[in-house]
Amino acid sequence: MNIEQEIQNLLEKGVSNIIDRTNLEKRLLAWEKLRVKFGIDPTAAKVHLGHMVPFLKLKQFQKLGHEIVLLFGDATAQVGDTRDKDAERPMLTREETRKNCEVFLQKFSKVIDISKINIYYNSEWLDAVNFAWVGELSKNFSVAEMLDRDNFSRRYNEWKRISLQEFLYPIMQWYDSVAIARKYGSCDLELGGNDQYFNLLAGRTLMNAFGMPKQDIMTFDLLIGTDGKKMSKTSPNCILIDDTPFDMYQKLINVEDSLIVHYFTFATEATLDEVTAIEQRLKDGEHPNILKKELADIVITMYHGKPYNPNDVENIEKYFLNWGDSKWWIIEIGLVTLLNEIGFCKTWGDFRNAISGKSIKVNWEVINDIKYIVKISSEWTLIQMGKKKAKRVFL
Fold first, then answer.
1. What is the pLDDT of residue 250?
2. Strand, helix or coil at 118?
3. CA of residue 304 relative to chain centroid, distance
4. Which end of the chain is more exposed for a tag (fewer CB within 10 A), N or C?
5. Cα–Cα dist 319/45, whole Å
6. How far apart are CA 199 and CA 29, in angstroms?
7. pLDDT of residue 316
8. Separation of alpha carbons 215 and 184, rounded Å
9. What are the residue ranges spanned by the domains of the chain?
10. CA 168 to CA 264: how far, in whole Å?
């Protein structure tokens, strides 16, 4: 790709809104080195594919030579953003938020070169803010503006409690933009999901109130969960970075067909042209599972170094059989009993159907005998049933 195509991908792929696009595009084409900020609250140690969407965009900026500023909200995370919550969030300790930051950095390093970014923690300036300063910040916004936020408005109309602390949270976050700009003299661009649009706009307002040039903002859609609903780290529709290659593969191969293009757009580094080609292949009648397999290979390679291979020993789940005080080095167990023990077959009918369908393998050999005896020792034995179930069993 030439520079114009790279900038087009930067400005359009997965991007839903840019303020001010004309200004940003002009500066990019003029080869200006921009300072690009992204802030995240480390409210939990779990990181899923949705968290990585902005880092794929930051990687594009980094590739073009722009300066990246990563801001961890270790102070704001103690309060927690309630933008998507129907009730107050539990308070975290500073120690918890800092530990979560360490986990986040380790995950983000799989996508972006963290040795070349500037990392800050907003406790650096928020811990030093006194009550009078909070008042100075707060006067820039009205109660009506705060209640305009969807979740505040909904909770207010439903007579659900809204603490003053929750009102102060977004002001704390907006001040981050001022603090970073003060460190450098300016900040050119801030990224965020569509759910952060209100906060990003308010950050511009606060920068203007402090006599600073307003930073441009870029927002993008959130990654949808595998079931078509909002991805959540507490839901089965979530694909965690720590998921095994097997689990990642199973989740991606079962993504709803309607989300294939969405995942190529937001969860991979595919270009606009490559995403368009994916759309065309679907329109031309190519089986969705072929594209899901390609998607899984790309995503798993990104986070595990290579595509998932069901025959790789490290991708097969281990299962330890504890036979009490048994001192035998080898035991013999009926295949039907073993399959029940490891959760592959719950009933005799399940087992009989699996045998007749030639879907059961022991050490890669198809088993046809319903009376087959498996020898288990301290050396693992591979048990497979169909294409999705595989475990290494040992004493």
1. 84
2. strand
3. 15
4. N
5. 27
6. 28
7. 58
8. 13
9. 3-220, 224-310, 316-394
10. 37
316-394 is classed CATH 3.40.1210.10: no
Architecture (CATH level 2) of domain 224-310: Orthogonal Bundle (1.10)
Torsion of CA 183, 189, 195, 199, to 10 degrees: 50
Token output for 251: 């989740």
For 273-291, write each residue's pLDDT tens digit: 999 999 999 999 999 989 9
Average pLDDT over residues 242-246: 86
Strand partners, 68: 36
Cα(first)–Cα(last) distance of the chain, in Å? Answer: 55
Distance (Å) of CA 379 to CA 144, 157, 322, 325, 373: 68, 63, 14, 18, 16
* Residue type for position 364: W
Q: What does the radius of gyration of the chain's CA atoms come to, in whole angstroms? A: 26
Q: Higher-confidence residue: 84 or 211?
A: 211
384 bridge partner residues: 361, 390
Instruction: List, as one string, the DSSP characters of 212-223.
Output: -PPPEEEEEPPP
Band (pLDDT 50/70/90 cuts) for residue 143 is confident
SS3 of the chain: helix, strand, coil, percent, to 5: 45, 15, 35
Q: Select from 3.30.420.40, 3.40.50.720, 3.40.50.620, 3.50.50.60 the CATH code of 3-220.
A: 3.40.50.620
The long-range contacts involving 325-329, CB below 8 angstroms and separated by at least 24 positions, are 326/395, 329/377, 329/378, 329/395
Q: What are phi and psi of 211, to 5 degrees?
A: 75, 25
pLDDT recorded at residue 87: 47
Q: How far apart are CA 24 and CA 244, in angstroms?
A: 39
Query: Which residue from 192, 199, 221, 201 is spatially nearest to 81, judged by alpha carbons?
Result: 199
Which tokens is 344 given? Answer: 């592959």
The H-or-E segment that residue 19 falls in is strand 15-19
Average pLDDT over residues 190-196: 91
Sign of CA dihedral 207, 211, 212, 218: positive
